[in-house]
Amino acid sequence: MSSQACGQLIHLRRTQYQTLCVYQHGSIRQLRVDEAAIQSAIDLNAPVHLQLPYTRAMMAMLLFQPPPTRVLILGLGGGDMVRYLQHHLTSVKLRSVEIDPEVIAVARDYFSLPENRCEYIEDEAFHFIQRDHHSYDSVLVDIYAGNNPPAMYRRWEFYLHCQRLLTPQGVLALNLITEDARLFRDIIYKVREIFGRLSLCLKVPGHKNVIVFAFKKKPARTNRAGLLSYALELSDQYDLDFSAQVEALFTTNPLNAGELVL
Predict the structure, then answer these.
(1) Could you tell me the pTM of the whole model?
(2) How many CA atoms lie within 13 A of 200 on its CB side?
(3) Is residue 151 part of a domain?
(4) Percentage, residues of the chain above pLDDT 70
(5) Does residue 11 lie within any of the structural domains?
């Protein structure tokens, strides 16, 4: 993509892990990784609004649990989900794990990264969850590794630790990008085995992202009418079109008598 299409380049940094580019066009600022993938985006006039479709899709976790009070985010980017959750969940405590210190610095300098009720940890995600003994209502995994998922996505132990860290009503949300059908099936198989087949996929329309949700116990709402009714409540509360996420869930997953099959 040309610099004209991206906007004006206002920051460039090559780190030991990746190349970070910050572009700005009008009030929109983007973080691009390795000159290609859009990792984060912010409208400086509306910083808590989620600009990217996949981040909005990850918030569908809120359809299946009470408002979370402790959230672990693996991968930071520009902190889009941190800003959103910190703004809309006034009691939430957020912890974000990011391996690249330059990403944390860029998020602070260019993407209005909040500090209140948020903790940022420089560590490799898999190493961190192996040692962590806190409990979380939500674990959000959004780690960029080029055209293939991170190696830890392929490990049974990763999902075992994620499940261990979740509270009884907890939800795992995993951003998965791969065009390898066999690898996709292998990852979904691991998730379903560890979580007792309590999982759903949400294909982000028009994008390669599939958001995988996994649950400690079966959600209370799995039928279209119940979820759409609740989506209307959440849309007003969280300034997000949850009805679109419900429709995407019913398009992506198997159904039985109008209910999502888990």
Answers:
(1) 0.95
(2) 31
(3) yes
(4) 98
(5) no
For the residues of 7-52, what is the DSSP string, one character each? -EEEEEEE-SS-EEEEEEETTEEEEEETTTEEEEEEETTBTTS--S
* 197: containing domain: 48-260
Q: CATH code at 163?
A: 3.40.50.150
Cα separation, 121 vs 255, whole angstroms:
40
> What's residue 1's pLDDT?
33
* Inside any domain, residue 206: yes
pLDDT confidence tier of residue 36, bands split at 50, 70 and 90? confident
Task: Give the total number of structural domains in the chain.
Answer: 1
What is the C-alpha end-to-end distance of the chain, expressed in Å?
Answer: 40
| pLDDT, averaged across the chain | 94
Q: In whole angstroms, give the CA distance from residue 209 to residue 164.
A: 25
Within a domain: 4? no
* Closest-CA residue to 243 (of 3, 95, 104, 63): 63
DSSP string, 208-226: S-EEEEEESS--S--BHHH
